[in-house]
Amino acid sequence: MALPTLTPEQRAEALKKAAAARTARKELRDSIARGEQTIPAVLDRAKSDTIVGKTKVADLLKSLPGYGPAKVSALLEQTGIDASRRAAGLGERQRQALLDALK
């Protein structure tokens, strides 16, 4: 299926919207890194907040102090969560397994 042809104005608007979403996700990760937000609280908002919902779980975990790519990969493998899974796509059992593993 071919992508629709956008006018220059539509393309500029889409680029602006995408940049705003990336900035919001970065601010979310930064607030987790600073300890202003917790993973359980963020995951509770995943279904209702599109910014949180579209953020990859691995990126949220990497924001935690002391969690790098290796530790996050091991944690996701242990809980049975795919590395490309987004926060809104977590099932209740996956979410609970992740929260239990983080304790």
Automatic annotation (TrEMBL):
A Pfam family: H2TH_5
TM spans (from-to): none
InterPro entries named among the record's database cross-references: IHF-like_H2TH (IPR055201), IHF_actinobact (IPR047806)
Domain of life of the native organism: Bacteria
Gene3D superfamilies xrefs: 1.10.8.50
Domain Integration host factor-like helix-two turn-helix per the UniProt entry, residue ranges: 34-100
Name assigned to this protein: Integration host factor
The organism's taxonomic lineage, starting at the top: Bacteria, Bacillati, Actinomycetota, Actinomycetes, Pseudonocardiales
